[in-house]
Specification:
There is one protein chain. Helices cover 29% and strands 29% of the residues. It is of the alpha+beta class and 181 residues long. The relative contact order is 0.14.
């Protein structure tokens, strides 16, 4: 399944497409960025780790729990976008997440993807029905906080650290399905 992010006056369209084996070098290169690695729950250091990650991505698509896309701009991978199914009792909300390569940061790619995916999740699709979407990030990740705010996700709570998976406090932003007119 492919999602298209419309162009803006200053930026070309983006394509969210399933990851492929041929993307392994791009995944490894992206994860070499220390700024990005600071915020990742699962940093990737080499091609074998990238292939293991891709296997998990394929499994997530197969069981409908994790829809993970490569974000392309003009045929080049510039990021990653994921939709995570609600997982009661841990969370009742569908989640979104993303990263962008260093060269693509600050150009609105993440917020454009979040907004497009939010509209898709609240739309007519029935793959992952959602009434509430959450965007989680570590406190201190100001870029992700700005993306959440720009896309109308309200800060719902500050989450305590839960080591080892979440060693620092986090922000939980949410956006709820608009009421029917």
């Amino acid at each position: 399944m492919i999602l298209t992010v419309p162009p803006t006056e200053t930026a070309p369209p983006l394509t969210l497409r399933p990851w492929r084996d041929a993307d392994v070098p791009a995944i490894v290169a992206a994860h070499g960025d220390e700024v990005m690695r600071r915020w990742l729950m699962r940093p990737i250091g080499d091609a074998d780790e990238a292939r293991a990650w891709l296997a998990d991505v394929v499994a997530g698509w197969a069981d409908g729990t994790l829809l993970s896309w490569a974000v392309e701009e003009d045929g080049v991978v510039v990021g990653h976008f994921v939709v995570k199914a609600a997982d009661p009792p841990a969370t009742l909300a569908t989640g979104v997440g993303y990263w962008t390569v260093a060269q693509a940061r600050g150009r609105g790619i993440a917020s454009r993807c979040v907004e497009t995916a939010t509209q898709w999740l609240f739309g007519e699709q029935d793959l992952l029905p959602a009434d509430e979407i959450e965007l989680l990030h570590t406190v201190g990740n100001e870029g992700s906080c700005r993306v959440a705010q720009k896309c109308g996700y309200e800060l719902a709570s500050v989450l305590p650290p839960l080591p080892p998976e979440f060693p620092e406090e986090g922000h939980r932003h949410v956006r709820r399905r608009p009421a029917a007119a």
